[in-house]
Amino acid sequence: MIVTTTQSVEGAKVTKYLGVITGEAILGANIFRDIFASVRDIVGGRSASYERELGKAREIALAELEDWAEELGANAVVGVDIDYESFGQTNGMMMVSATGTAVVIERAAP
Question: How far apart are CA 94 and CA 84, in angstroms?
Answer without folding.
Answer: 7
